[in-house]
Amino acid sequence: MPLSLCSVFFVKWKVPHFLINKLTSLLVVLLIFRMAATAFHQAVGTLQPHGYVNHSDFHQEFGNVSMRLISNSIKVNFGQLRRGSYCSRERNICVIEASTSQTSVFDPVSSPSNNTTNDSRKKSSEAALILIRHGESLWNEKNLFTGCVDVPLTKKGVEEAIEAGRRIGNIPVDMIYTSALIRAQMTAMLAMTQHRRKKVPIVMHNESEQAKAWSKIFSEETKRQCIPVLTAWQLNERMYGELQGLNKQETADRYGKEQVHEWRRSYDIPPPNGESLKMCAERAVAYFKEQIEPQLLSGKNVMIAAHGNSLRSIIMYLDKLTSQEVISLELSTGIPMLYILKKESL
């Protein structure tokens, strides 16, 4: 209904003036959102938008990034790197989740930092950050608290990791970070078997000088065909203390559902002799800021394969979530999330 007709309708039926203003404002917002969503749909393909979509700001902030979407199977988050830290604002952040599953995400010619014909100035102005929670583990399958126990993937988890690799197969990856746990490392390695560049992920052994010397690669050409993989305990899952190895349902029966829910979903209350989400976030975010963020600022494209709570912590930092918002954040196993990060200035 046009706004003029809407106003006549309200007057005819003697709707209070303050209510007319509120309803009119609501209609304006809905019309703008619909126009923006329609334009965004036309720009990037058949996606279902979730979050804030502002078409004019999208082109203003990211107009120099040509992204021809050729698949619909990934979550994408757009944000800015500002003065060494990530800045997320309603007017320039967009989270989209596709409804179908295909084999690749962005046209490799137009993906961030993948066009070698562009000058280095443009190349370093943006970077891709891929976050993947590991595929299903054997203890996920058995409904056990896993925490920092080093449990491998199930067959389903292997398939999830491979599918994740297909979804990100056209996104350039320069560096990979994983936790020190095998399920995250398996996920990263399996995902990279599907990458179109066919580079080999190589675990970097920097724990001692001897380890560095023994794992050194002496061919420069071979080095160019490899992707360094750095493992860090700081990216490990939250340590669940005395709950590790216990069945989740049996634990709820023993301690009560409310107590177990408090241990699992509160921000700063740890389980017996374990970590709270706050404690997990302190180590994970500190590592991200010290080791990973500088790589992104230099224009490197980074993939992180880790765990539900360590990734929630990083997302909390990137999206500036509150402690109440982060505890309700759910991450599915084997589903990639993509952040396209732009520096505010070159």
CATH superfamily of the largest domain: Phosphoglycerate mutase-like
Helix content: 40-55%
The helix/strand class is alpha/beta
- What do we call the CATH topology of the largest domain? Rossmann fold
What is the CATH architecture term of the largest domain? 3-Layer(aba) Sandwich
Low-confidence stretches are: 1-13, 35-74, 80-123
State the total count of DSSP E strands.
10
What overall geometry do the principal axes of the alpha carbons give?
Answer: globular
Query: In terms of quaternary structure, what is this?
Result: single chain
Distance between the termini: 45 Å
| Largest sheet properties | 10 strands, mixed
SSE sequence, one letter per element: HHEHEEEHEHHEHEHHEHHHEHHE
Would you tell me the overall average pLDDT?
A: 76
The fraction of residues in strands falls at 15-25%
Give a summary of the structure in a few sentences.
The protein has 346 residues and is of the alpha/beta class. The protein is built from 14 helices and 10 strands. Strands 1, 2, 3, 4, 5, 6, 7, 8, 9 and 10 form a 10-stranded mixed β-sheet that branches.
